[in-house]
């Protein structure tokens, strides 16, 4: 019996050693990497912000009867101010790092400046108080969450007329220019980036800074007599260029995308 027990013990010891050797020889398999969400710029977005701007306009004094210049010398006049903006759009990401989109926005504020009638030494403070734009943009992702883009499209603007004052005495000149609208086109560009920076977690929230130049059609601003609401025979030709820069907070409704390995 003792010999049988010794034999069984020897077999068990040998089997355990072999099993341990097998375990030691097995290769180590690395755990699969965690999954991460890939950013996608495709989807709808809304934005709101504020900024500043300036305008300048080529002006001349013309006859409302003949349309001819009354003075041979033309002037460039202008103004500046602030505004707020709201809008929205839709983007498509394609070809890897390219983003194209359509958008629309509106601006409300006070870009205020002066126009003059050098014949009668009159001047009026007019302002661009409203404008809107609809356009397209094309951008490239310089980083997964940073878009550099250019844009362009159609724009409209409203201008608030004002009383004409005598530039010598500062008194009312007895005439005014009415409110008017101008349409044209714009070009611009900017940078938009996700706010997940400096340890801040803000999924879907972005910030964009944009420059825009809007070129509007010319308009003859007829000088209207206060008492009769009839023309005094003169008009100020007005062809404005409006340049603005703004910073806006953007919210993207479907920021994110399919899961991909994060190696």
Question: How many strand units?
Answer: 13
Query: In CATH, what is the class?
Result: Mainly Beta
- Mind describing the biggest β-sheet? 11 strands, antiparallel
Measured by DSSP, the beta-strand proportion falls in over 45%
Cα gyration radius (Å)? 35 Å
Taking pLDDT < 50 over at least 5 consecutive residues as the criterion, the unreliable ranges are 1-25, 257-263
Oligomer: single chain
The CATH level-2 architecture is identified as Beta Barrel
Secondary-structure-based class equals mainly beta
Kindly give the count of domains: 1
> What percentage of residues falls in helices of 4 or more residues?
under 10%
Number of helices: 1
The N- and C-terminal alpha carbons lie at a distance of 62 Å
Write up this protein.
- The protein is mostly beta strands and 263 residues long.
- The chain has one domain (51-257): Porin (Beta Barrel), CATH 2.40.160.
- The chain has 1 helix and 13 strands, in the order H-E-E-E-E-E-E-E-E-E-E-E-E-E.
- The strands form 2 sheets. Strands 2, 3, 4, 5, 6, 7, 8, 9, 10, 11 and 12 form an 11-stranded antiparallel beta sheet that branches.
In brief, what are we looking at here?
The protein has 263 residues and is mainly β.
